[in-house]
Amino acid sequence: MARHYVTIKDIAKILNISVSTVSRALRDTYDVNQETKEKVLALAAELNYKPNFNATGLAKGSTHNLGVILPFITNYYFSTVITGIQEVAYNNGYNIILFVTNDSPERELAIMENLSVSSLDGLLVSISSDSDSCSHFQEIVDEGIPVVFFDRVASEIDTSKVMQDDYNGAFEAVTHLIENGYKKIAHIAGPKGLSFTEARLRGYLDALKQHNIEPNEDWVVYSGFSQEHGEADTRQLLQLQHQPDAIFAVNDRKAIGAMLTLKNKGIKVGEEFGVIGFTNDPMSTIISPSLSTIAEPAFEIGKLSCELLIKHITKKYFHAEEIVLPGKLIARESSSRKN
Amino acid sequence: MARHYVTIKDIAKILNISVSTVSRALRDTYDVNQETKEKVLALAAELNYKPNFNATGLAKGSTHNLGVILPFITNYYFSTVITGIQEVAYNNGYNIILFVTNDSPERELAIMENLSVSSLDGLLVSISSDSDSCSHFQEIVDEGIPVVFFDRVASEIDTSKVMQDDYNGAFEAVTHLIENGYKKIAHIAGPKGLSFTEARLRGYLDALKQHNIEPNEDWVVYSGFSQEHGEADTRQLLQLQHQPDAIFAVNDRKAIGAMLTLKNKGIKVGEEFGVIGFTNDPMSTIISPSLSTIAEPAFEIGKLSCELLIKHITKKYFHAEEIVLPGKLIARESSSRKN
């Protein structure tokens, strides 16, 4: 028969308190009252509870390995974030262990299940679309392992997070199109349910509302993040009887797909049809006309995430922080004033 | 006084044989004669020699961590190589520990000096331009740690290497320009001394020679790998009294820099001036006119390098292999027949 090891869940159940309270009591953090702490420690001793990491490793933050879990590395945004992470890690004597989920919830789950937490001091995570791993991340956080989410965050998990301001970036992008004479603005969005794509959608809708423009349901298309998705979404929009005169794309790759499709149809981008993206991928300066966009602070996001993680690892009483970095409108040719 | 640990260099010196022979004797490889092996083992025992990695880790290939040392991750080529490495590592239960040198020989050296080899089963390496670390890599190989070089290889070190066929790719690119009517072909090259840029230069020169075209020294410009380098190199070429009518660029980013500069000067790319690059970066399809190039098998290079490394780790008598993968000419608009 398999031996059952006592977990913090067992302790929480017996004492009828939350797993997170048990976790905080065991870690001796500031926000648990003394009585609860003593109860937890007494029961843990009685049941011979052992944390699921070895004492020489994670508990003391001494492996000097940081795990990074993220969907992709071949795109500009994520490779720039990793470069920021890597700079801070290197300067502080940490190694980066890289786990790429290919944006697959199954792969992400498999990585989480096989994660050797004893060889890591902490984790930096950007979740995959449709992530199934939130309970796994919660377990790891409950065990006292420092976790910082960046960009694609699991909002329900109480730990530090670093994001860009997706809502205001989208609001600014759409306002810019409106101010340049475009009034029939479509949005080619990301998949439903991902928090940052929802925030960009809300920014789009609120910018329309603020300018008394009625949103049109047909003009919001949800799909993936690739250039090909941008092409397909745009073909779909161009088949509508009532067509838009501008597109706000959830990222630059989709915006570039939109521009290539529009150019193929002989539609003049930046004259009769406005396009704006989100990222500031170097491709946006190379396509002609050049692509307007909201620049994301990718390097900064990597840098700050890693700095926060190291604070979680090295400071006993470090509060979780949520940092939201502003984007920046970069107006180029694709959103020039409508003729 | 600091204690001096016996190293394989000491053993080599005393026995007056090479470090690499000592290393092979200690690892019990096939290519050391029995007498030498016995001498080495006897002396190692006498001097109480201990390998500089712990026995539970590297020696048995049981950390399941692979180190990857490379110049950049923000460019398409390297991020695609890592994706290939990551796929094979994941499927074989290995983690990737990432070290980015920023193409700086000093950073590379610092990484090598601080490398905790006891936490690695092996290393995948693409050296930086002007690498100063060859002796460090040699030491690591001598200690019996599996190392595979990819793309930017240290040619003097005897271990497995995976490269693309830079010479033939360049030869094919330049031949293609010649066949399309361009005869005054310049080469905007990488830095001097890096083996793959030297190979591309030789391919360029031999293609000219084969078509009885006299090379012109002024038409070969050495610099870095960025788009900005491509722009500066092209401006330099356009200031010559005797100007070229085509450019073969060492990579796509430099080719794109060249195209943007030519377009700015009102020179019609793909009509009066031919351009071809090397990589097949997705940007090459987005710029207009689209960029002809030699497609590099980046994912395949990552995949094969990692497969080779795992063979080195798991097979006692695995011979070093050198694999050269062919590139593929992709003719697009920037090298269309000269008007």
- The radius of gyration of chain A is 23 Å
Q: Helices and strands of chain A, in N-to-C order?
A: HHHEHEHEHEEHEHEHEHEHEHEE
Number of helices of chain A: 12
Assembly state of the chains shown: homodimer
CA distance, first residue to last residue of chain A: 77 Å
Shape summary of chain A: elongated
- Overall pLDDT confidence of chain A: 90
- CATH superfamily descriptor of the largest domain in chain A: Response regulator
Major protein interface: A-B, 30 and 32 residues
Give the strand order of the largest sheet of chain A, numbering strands 1, 2, ... along the chain.
2-1-3-4-5-11
Strand content of chain A: 5-15%
State the total count of DSSP E strands of chain A: 12
Give the total of domains of chain A: 3
Instruction: Pick out the low-confidence regions of chain A.
Output: 53-61
Provide the CATH topology of the largest domain in chain A.
Rossmann fold
Under CATH at level 1, the class of the largest domain in chain A stands as Alpha Beta
Helix content of chain A: 40-55%
**Known CATH architecture of the largest domain in chain A:** 3-Layer(aba) Sandwich
Largest sheet of chain A: 6 strands, parallel
List keywords for this structure.
homodimer; Rossmann fold; 6-stranded parallel beta sheet; 4-stranded parallel beta sheet; 12 helices; elongated; LacI family transcriptional regulator (chains A, B)
Write a short abstract of this structure.
The structure is a homodimer of 339-residue chains. The longest helix of chain A has 17 residues, at 298-314.
